[in-house]
Amino acid sequence: MASAEAAVAYYTSGHADLGVAYEDGAFNFHFHGEGAVIDGVEVGDREYAASDIIIHGGVAATVVLPEGFVLPGLGRSAGDTVWILPWNQEEGLPFLGTASEELNPADWIGGITFTLGNVTSPSGNGEFALWRYTPFGEVAQDLSTVTGPNSVITSTGSHDHFNWGFTEPGLWEVELTASGQHATDGLISATETFRFQIVPEPSTALLGGLGILGLFARRRR
Q1: Three-state secondary structure along 92-105?
Q2: For residue 34, what pLDDT band results from cuts at 50, 70 and 90?
Q3: pTM exceeding 0.70
Q4: What would you report as the CA-atom Rg of the chain, rounded to the nearest whole angstrom?
Q5: Count H helices, E strands: the chain?
């Protein structure tokens, strides 16, 4: 597994996406910073190869699940400690989504699918999940190494945010495949591995607070 020190840059807070563009008949599946803080500096509109970025969740990502709360996708419940990059923008944490805004919906049949591949956790026994909340505050599971599903379909030309959950600290590698049906070129896909450093933080990290209760109470803005 790659070491954290091998990364070119650390993304520590602000807005960014795992973006999909269509170039020369192929997907360019990349990290897109747009208001992201990378190596301590806020960047505007900038793209990075997946291998050039580590997505960093500092101590503010640490959450002890409150009484009565269950996260089936992580296999965790009240009293358990998990690490969450939230779907709401929180100071000091990455606000990470997926985006296919560079694609023209008229060129595609159906949506863009993000499929979960290999997930490597620090201990080899960790669990990973992606989820959102319904208007009633219920968990809407998108991806999970515990319960599934292993893919989520998003609208072509869209922008979506999720909660990114991890069950242990350390360096994670999450493999994702973006795929879609082009109207003339057929099935197009690309696979990349994105790295997440979930505490301990590197020396470049900018740490902030997370309103833990707000993580469960608020809906996406």
Answers
A1: CCEEEEEECCCCCH
A2: very high
A3: yes
A4: 17
A5: 1, 18
Residue 56: partners with Cβ closer than 8 Å, 6 or more residues away? 10, 11, 12, 94, 196, 197, 198, 201, 202, 205
Mean pLDDT, residues 48-53 taken together: 97
Q: Which of 15, 26, 3 is nearest to 192 (CA)?
A: 26
Adjacent-strand bridge partners of 63: 82
Nearest to 27 by CA among 100, 105, 130: 100
Q: What is the DSSP letter of 186?
A: E
Query: pLDDT tens, 93-130?
Result: 999 999 999 999 999 999 999 999 999 999 999 999 99
What is the C-alpha separation between 179 and 148, in angstroms, rounded? 18
Measured CA to CA in angstroms, residue 3 lies from 39, 56, 123, 171 at distances of: 17, 13, 14, 8
